[in-house]
What we know:
The complex is a heterotrimer.
Chain A: H1 7-14, E1 18-22, H2 23-34, E2 36-41, H3 48-57, E3 64-67, H4 71-83, E4 87-92, H5 94-109, E5 114-120, H6 137-142, E6 151-153, H7 158-175, E7 178-184, H8 185-188, E8 191-195, H9 199-202, E9 244-246, H10 261-276, E10 285-288, E11 295-299, H11 304-316, E12 321-326, E13 328-330, H12 334-343, E14 346-351, H13 358-365, E15 370-375, H14 384-390
Parallel strand pairs in A: 2-3, 2-4, 4-5, 5-7, 6-7, 11-12, 11-14, 14-15
Antiparallel strand pairs in A: 1-8, 6-13, 10-12
Helix pairs in contact in A: 2-3, 2-7, 4-5, 11-14, 12-13
Chain B: E1 2-10, H1 15-27, E2 33-38, E3 48-56, E4 70-73, H2 76-81, E5 91-94, E6 109-110, H3 113-119, H4 126-138, H5 143-153, H6 159-179
Parallel strand pairs in B: 1-4, 4-5, 5-6
Antiparallel strand pairs in B: 1-3, 2-3
Chain C: H1 7-14, H2 30-44, E1 51-55, E2 70-73, H3 79-89, E3 94-100, H4 101-107, H5 109-118, E4 122-128, E5 131-132, E6 138-139, H6 163-169, E7 174-179, H7 184-195, E8 199-205, H8 209-213, H9 221-231, E9 232-234, H10 235-244, H11 247-253, E10 257-264, H12 270-292
Parallel strand pairs in C: 1-2, 1-3, 3-4, 4-8, 7-8, 9-10
Antiparallel strand pairs in C: 5-6, 7-10
Amino acid sequence: MKFIYDPIKIRDVLGNKIQFLLGDMACVYGGLLAGVSFFGGYPITPASEVSEGMARLLPRVGGTYIQMEDEIGSIAAIIGASWGGAKSMTATSGPGFSLMMENYGYAIMTETPCVIVNVQRTGPSTGQPTLGAQGDMMQARYGTHGDLEAIALAPSTVQECLDFTIEGFNLSEKYRNPVCIMTDGEVGHLRERIVIPDEKDLNLINRVQATIPKNKFIPFTDSQTRKNCKVPDFPTFGTGYRTYVTGLTHNEKGFPATDKQKDHEKLVNRITTKITDDADNLVMVEKLKLDDADIAFVTYGASARPAETAMDIARSHGKKVGLLRLQIVWPFPEKIVSKLAKQVDKIIVPEMNLGQIYHPIKEAACGNCEVELAPKIGGEMHLPSELLKYLGVK
Amino acid sequence: MKKEIRICGFGGQGVILSGFIIGKAASVFMDYYAVQSQSYGPEARGGAARSEVIISDEKIGYPRPTGVDLFVAMSQESFDTYRNDLNKDTKIVVDPDLVPKNDIGRSLYKIHAQKIAEALGNKIVTNIVMVGASTAIFGLLDEEAVKKSVLDSVPKRFLELNEKAYIKGLEAGKNALKKL
Amino acid sequence: MVEIKTADQLNKKYLREGMWPTIFCNGCGHGTVLEYTLWAIEELGWDMDKTVFTSGIGCSSRLPGYINADGLHTTHGRAIAFATGIKAANPDLNIIVFTGDGDCAGIGGNHFIHAARRNIDMTVIMINNFIYGMTGGQLAPTAPLNSIATTAPYGNIEPPFDICNLAKALGANYVARWTVNHPYQPIKSVKDALAKKGFSLVEFLAPCPTAYGRRNRLGDIKKHWEWYDNNTILIEDYERIINYGSEKEKEEVKNMFPIGVFQDLEKPGFFEQYEKLVDRLMIKKNKKPVKKETVISR
C-alpha cells in the first residue's frame, strides 16, 4: 500500500475549516496537511495527544502509524521512512527528546528530512510531566554530539502549532535537515480557534528527487544538479540509485572515510553551511510595537504570550515597550537581534528556563544594550505582573 | 472586553467538554477570541477537575485566567478547592444537589442540573444542562451559538438528548436569574 | 541473463566495485554469510533495485557497504527500527537487516523483540560471533559461559542470550540457526526467510578468530570450525533428547547450540494487517453518505 497525497481526502478527514482545537492536535493537522505519510511515536505526557491524533487520523488518509517501542525506535523509524520516500514525523517531550539525540545527529549527518515535535515539559529528568517549560531549546541546538546546524521553530499559539508544523516540513524537505517544532505543555494543551489553510495557500515544498542518470549521480555533494546549492538531490530507496547511507564520516559517494580529515571537513562544512549560508532566508520573527521602543522583550513560544500582555499594560502606562518574537529560533536570527540591540536601551528575555536563548541574544547584543534574563521555572508561564516588574511598572 | 470562566467538578462529569463548548461557541460560532485551558494530571482521573475559558474581543496574550467572572461548580470538592480567588462580582453557579454546602454568605445561582438531566433520562448530560444555565445567567454568548457548539461537540447518536438538556438548562438559568 | 555458477560470478553481479579489500579479518565468518545471502537472493531472482540492506554498528553492519543496492548503515542497535520505517514507507521493498550479536541481542534487543512481536515484514540475519569484534573483543550477551573477553578477563559468568528461542516465543514467522560451516542448509534457510512474509530471523554462528578465537583457544580457524561441530546439535535431535533422553544424554546436550529451523509459520505480516485496517476505514467512510440522510440535519 503506497501513500498518495490527496488534499481533498485530508480536508475531509480533518473536518470543518474553522475549529476550536488543542495545540497538540494542531501539530497533527499540520503534519497531515504537509503530507506526512508515516508517524512513529511513543506515548509521553504532554505530547501523547499528537500520537493519539495521528493514530486516529493517519490511517484514514492512507498513511502509516506505528507506536514504536521507545523514542529511539521512533526517530529511527521516521528516518528510515524518509529514505523510503515518506514525509515522516514523531512527537515527544523532554525525556524522549533526550533518548532521540543520537539518531537526531544521524538524521543531520545523513541529511534526512523529518520533523520532530517536542512538547516541552520541565526537567531535568522526569520533572513535571504535565506542565510546560522551555528547557530543551539548547538541546535542540547542541544536544547531539558533533558539529551541526539545527532548525527549530517555536509556536506561541494553536494556529502556529498547525502552521509551523507545515513550515517545519517545508524547511526539512528544502534543507534536508531534521526540523524540531519546539512547542511546550502550555501551548500544547491550550485550545484555540484555528483556520485550516486552503490548498492553494500551502506552498508545500518537497525534496528534490534525484533524476540524473544513475551512473553519474553523486549522492553527497553540492551543486551537482542545482547551481550553488549545497543540498544534494534525494535518491529515494527503491528508485534504482543504490545509495549507501551512513552516519560515519563519508565521502561524496557516501562511503565511509573515517580516517580522512579532509573528507570529514568537507562533509561537515557542507552540511552546516547549507543552512548558515541561507540564514537570511531562515528568519521568521514577529515584531510588535518595536518602532519607537526603548525596551524590548525578545522571546519565543509560550513566553511571548505573557510578554505581549505585559507590553500592552506597560504601553498604557506610557512605557515604550516592544516585543520581538522569534518564530524560528534556530538558526538564531543574529542580525535582527543585533540591530535591535543598537536601537533599544534594554532587552528583557522571558524564558521558562534558567536562561537558554538569553545567551545567543546577549552575544548578538554585543554590549550595545543591557540584556536581562527573566526566568520562570516550575511549570507555569510568567504572570504578566511578574514581567511588568522588569519594566518598572507596578 | 475580557471575561474569564471557570467550570469545575469531578473527573468524568464532562467539565473539560463544557469549557470546550463555551470556547468554541465564542470563537467558532461567534467572533470572539477564546482560549481554553485545563488542569491536567491526577485530577483528570477522578478528583477535582477544572476547565478555564477566556473570552475576549481582542487577541489573548497571557492564556491563563487572572480572575474569575463566572464560576460554575458541579461538585463539593471542586467548589471548596477552586473558590479562593473569586471577587465580589464573580457570578457563581452551583448544582445544590452536588454542592450541598454552598452557604458561603453570598448569593449564588442554584441549578438542579443533575436532577434535570436525570429527568431527561441520563445524568451524563448534567454538564450540558449547566452549559445552558450558565449561558443564560452569564448573558455574554448568543444562545444559538452555544447550541450550535453543543451539537457540534457531542456524539452524533446523543444529539437529541443534548439539545434537550441544553434547552432545559437555558430555561433553568433564566428562572434562576428571575429569582436572584 | 548469465547463469551464476561460481562465487566470482556472484560477487561480480551483486557487490560494488572498488570496495576491496574488505575490513574483515582472515577466518572471519561475515563474508561467508554474505555469500550465502547473495546465493539465496540469486535463487529467488530478487530485483536489487527494490532490495534495501539495513545495519547498525559492528563488523556485520559493514556488509551492506559491499552490496550494490540501497543500504542504510545506522546507529548501534537500531537497524531494525530504521528498517521498520523503510518498509512502512514503501512496502514493495524487500528489507534485509544485517546485524551482530552485540548490535541485535545487546543494545538493540528491544527493537528486535518488538519487530518480531509485530511480525514486521523483514529478514534479520544475525551473525553471532560471541564477541564485540570491531571494538577489540569486549563481552557480548551471547558469549558462552566461561569464555574470555577483554571485559570478562576472568571468564564470563553470565548465561548467554538465546536469540532464536526468544524470536520463537515472540511468534516470529520464521526462525533458524546455522553455523557458517554448513553451506547448503543456510542458503535454503535464508531463501525461505526472505520469501516469508512477516518477521524472519536467521542466526549464524560465525567465527571471530581475532577477537574471540585468540582469547578462547580457538585462534586456529580449523579448531573454531571443529568447536562448532562439537558444540552444535540438530534441533530435532536436541528436542528428542530433552523430551525422551536419559539424564546422561540430557547433560551432554545441555550447553550445546541447537541448529536448524526453530519455527516456520504463515501468520500475516504487520503491513498486511495494517492494509486491512486502512481498507476497513475506507469502506466505512464510503458507506457514510447513505447514512447521512438518516441523520437529522442541524
